## 1
Amino acid sequence: MVGTFFRLKLAVIRNAFGGSGTFAQAGAVLVWMLAVALGLGAGALVTIVLGAVPEQSTVVLASVFTAYAFFWLLLPLVAASFDQTLQPRSFELLPLSTRTLATGLAGAALLSPGAVFTALSLGLGVVVGVGGGLAPRVVGLAGVGVFTVMMIGASRLLTTVLSDLLRRRRTRDVVTMVVMTLFVLPSLIGGFIAEGVAGAGLGAAGRVASGAVEWNPAGALGTVGPRVAAGELLAPSAVLLYGAATSGGLVVLWGWALRRLQTTVVSDHVRSARGARRLQPRWLPRGAVGAVAAKELVYVRRDIRYRAQLFGTGIVVVGLVVATVRGDLHHPMAPYLAGAAGFLLVAPLTFNALGFDGASMWGYVVAPISGRTILAGKNIAAFIGSAVLVVPLAAMLAWAAGSAVHVPGALLAAGGLAMLWAGIGNVLSVLGAYPMPDDNLFANRTGSWQAAVAALGGMIVGAIALAPVGMAGLLAWARWGSAGTTAVAVGALAYGAVIWFAGLVLGGRLVDEQVTRLVSVLDEH
Amino acid sequence: MGNLSSVTAVSYRGLTKRFGATLAVFDFTLDVPSGVFFGITGPNGAGKTTLLRMTTGLLRPDAGIVRVAGTDVWDDPVTAKTVFGVVPDQPGMFPKLTGRQLLEFNGLLRRMDPAVIEQRAAELLGVLGLADDADVLVADYSLGMTKKVAIAAALLHGPRVVFLDEPFAGVDPVSRQVVEQILRRHVDGGGTVVFSDHAMDVVERLCSEIMIIDHGRLLAAGPVDRITEGRRLQDVFVDLVGGAALGPEGLGWLGRSSG
């Protein structure tokens, strides 16, 4: 059955290369070329490091595997990834056991850009970088294979369980905070270990760090090749067996979580208070733009798809708070970090602004409003959300760093950054529109390779647009201090406003022109 | 069917839409008069939904013109959309709004006065039996309730023409009667209802005028009496589009196998 799923995925990929428009084809080619090229590049890097410190190959490979595991778990939560994943929902009505479905889907997931990147880079590192003949390399490759399956199972299990928990009003806020803290924890632990190492030399703390890297389930799989090369047999075999059992267990657990997610309907059961049932608060602008903004603000509170997209923002905010409490942020420019958090909030909300409620797109289209009105309303909601986050964060960071003088500049820069990105996002939202899943919140959607091209293009344009302002700010700070950065921040706000307006006009026009495609692409339910 | 007149609610001229090699709607020319209950019927895949989507600005035609109340839907969409309301076949409403908020949102998008929205929304929710669930999320509505709130949203701004794609699918008999009454009142007030449905008895009972389409082509259009000429609409329909009969030996394995 795994072979059937594998062939199905292969057919989906082949179809993507051969059909559904030039843009989508280009996306498919680009994503796979990037996966292969980056995989080979990362593999070469691992090989170089292993070549430089051959006696440390066990620790190096364990560290690389551990780092990969961290990214496998983190990336699906904080960033969109692009893969034509088979949708579990499509198999709901087939007579497949939970285990068969999960192993089949996991097998198919081996044909994803992330898995190919992982297998290529680690495989290359093990084959070229581990010495000692054929046996260590073969065992090392087995470790890579088990690791890749383990990561597929672990990341799918995490996102599926989170999707289920986050749907539930009673648990979602607690779960959100716990998960965000968990992701900040490694840096905290790393900090403590680094302090220990600095304070006591490479003694106990160093051994603790090394042990943690080598004996966590992911890191241990990286050590099997070097251990065989060192003449060990029992430990690598045990690690491989343990890894395989863990991988199988994770995949089976994922299957159960998936079944539960698909067969349990969770209702928000929101019944608005009679006194507060108005959609549009009085402080929002009257008319259609204000209505769209009001609806978006309600959705940020109620729709779990919006909240899930803000995981990255939350992790950064928790990280900043932790760093402040630890007293790490003494730099006078610290308040400007608030702008980065604001950016991380605005980016996901504007990057695919039409995809959150894609199935409702027709509701906008049949109303007598322009595309510009829709985007403007969504942008205003994102700006309001950003302001709510950035202002107290900048104040906190200024307090921690003792540099209140930088707060005005930080707020202006944050506004400019948010508007710049919203302007680019308005165009991206049309060119790379894709429907956000409403059940498996972190899953990828069919057709998103086209979005990959748009997203990559948008990020490049954004970086190019941002570079001159960033450089001007740094130069001004070096030359004139806070007065200089504040002056540049005023310019940044104006610059951002210009780009936002241009993006709004262009994006609005694209919505009007591509309305048929948008309704069709976004309503993939 | 040549010239447009002031009594024309919807006007099609040479409307054509292809999906790859498939001709969904071909050279469609027709006038739907104002103040009628107009039914669009045809077999599955005939082009009914495609036609309605092109009429309401959801699907851009390859060629031809659609005018609603005299305004070209694709040349001046904003003006055209002020005069009609739409209920699609599967209305993916804004599910995280409550029913009342959904109506408010629709009214605000149409730049209606908030006081008028509130008054009309209360009336519509009451008549449609949704008053008790007005403050419940649309996501928690049943299919029938979703259809009803979609109908309320389409009628809120008092449109001259209402387009409904299979409006009675999933709606219980009591609610269906209420919806029929509301739509009749709309027609009695001078408005036009254009809806698609497979159920011939519903079409025959409600509509004064109909069209039958198949494979994207207009087979018949006009007053029901003239098309049926005393026969049942079901029989006329099958004669026009052709029927497929199942022979006694066909699909004999049905019900005998579990594999």
## 2
Amino acid sequence: MTFEFHGSGVFLAVLCFLCIPGAQAKPGDSDYYMGFEAGGLSGDFGTLVDSDLYSFQVVGGLLASNYDVSVSVPYLIQKDDPGYTVEGLGDIALLVGHTLLPKQADGISVDGSVMLKLPTADESKGLGTGEFDIGLILDINHQWPSFSASLRAGFINTGDTAVDSYNNSFLYGVSFFRMDGRFGNYLSLEGRTATIDHVANPLELQIGTFYALNLNYMLTANALIGLSNSSPDLGMSAGFRYWFD
Amino acid sequence: MKTIIALTALAGVFTYSLAYADMSRSQSQMMNAQQSSQRMGSQMMQHDSMREMSRMMVQMRDMLRDMTQLMDQDRLRDQTQMRDMSRVMAQMSEALRNMSSNMQQGMMSEQDQDRLQQQVRDMEKAMDQLHKQLDVDD
């Protein structure tokens, strides 16, 4: 029953989002990319087990003036403290974003996004819950010539399994982006309510950068620092992005 | 009898340890699943950050494209200026040649004529170098 609710609700939401007037692609108005990222997270995420999670993910997407679509397909290797190692395809994440308020004269714009987590990870290995999750997120952005800031708030409807019931999660965050030569740097503080009971709410600080080698190739790097017990202690990732002409 | 008791106890310990391993494995899987549910929020925020980063990358690409266009425009302007200069020098050289020819028919010392001709040759040499430079730039 849960599956049906999530499945139909999710697809309906994504379909509605795509049908918002103006969301359709205009010829020559979109930038397409593909990329690869490798990284690791370590910590207990508020559970009783410490684990190291290594991820290798292919990312791709397109950006148009008033909407964007992105997808990430991860391969996960998880090593737990007792010595178990599991690996396999992770949950595929799909995000569809749409500009709800185009950039105004004062530089303010508002974006809304729907994110869908497909239960592609093997739940018997614990690499995923085996259920759909759907999230909604709202970004209020302010842009200056080479600097921008975003305030974000969101909600995730976490799919319950037959055995476990997870809490839905509220998200909040603030981020800053700045261009410096061929570098683009960002800093963000992100928090959310925990999906499992009796643990602290996760809070994380992220620092990231990208470097444009040329019009097509860009390098990316990101570091994550957990600020609460239920966040990963530390995370790092690096990758590259290819932009199609 | 003792052997049977010992074997039974050993089998019991073995079964218990297997059951314990199973239990701890399934507990580990449950913890993994819980961690996975916790990660969704992080994954979503990262995706959202990735979207912001992608927008910055698009801006960066636009800036790089503009820079390339400006550099091309600068190069074109420099080449046009050099061609104009070369044209002016050719006209000056022609004027000097005419002047030299006229002077030869009038009252002019040989020393002055030599100096004038040397100036014409220097100017022609400078003009040749300018033409060669233009060919290299093209």
## 3
Amino acid sequence: MTNADRALSAIADPTRRQVFERLAAGPRSVGELAEGLPVSRPAVSQHLKVLKEAGLVADRAEGTRRVYEIDPHGLGALRAWLDQFWGEALAAFKAEAEKDPS
Amino acid sequence: MTAAQIKPAPVRRSVFVKCSPEHAFEVFTAGFDRWWPKGHSVGSTPQRAALMELKAGGRWYEIGEDGSETQWGKVMIWEPPHRVVLVWSVDPDWNCDPNLHTEVEVRFTPEGGGVRVDLEHRNLEAFGARAEEVRAKIDNEKGWNSLLKMFAAQAEL
């Protein structure tokens, strides 16, 4: 999978998108994220794992608890988007350049 | 090590094109408007044309339907038909920021009856600094939320 595929499939799940949106507002622990969401803590942990693998979310220790936040540079999503963006642009370029390949 | 020192990997994409390097270079640069997806626009009005000036230091910009020009960046290195390096100054809010310096290098390498075009978008750490500014803004409509909307739109294609 490319970066874009990974990030897109990560964000395609509605619950995972909710988790991601909550993190966009600021760092949260698993417990804080689970509050108000219709899913269990282990399920939230599983969603966080997927988001982490997609490069969208990072975690760090804060005292005795683990806090999740959007990737420190906010670059996971941006990289994935650029990856997709340039992929589409190059495909269009190839089609044009091969129209009349003199 | 602080977060600011993390250097993100460039975005790299390649495509093989069945034509000469000269033709590929010409289409990529002089013919930019012929292939650039019209939806890839940062201007405030719909895009009429996307252009680059064919020289080092030249502008890279789009012209809207209303005639307004929005600059995306500029041509940094001009080496036809081998290489062009562009400066991309479009920020995470999808506005043009002249102070934002990321680079898009495009190399054209002859390969078995055609040309391999390698694109590298680098210096993404410059986005990082801007992305943090965006996130720090109280107005959450910009930055991450707009990215999320884009993601949703892309995911539904």
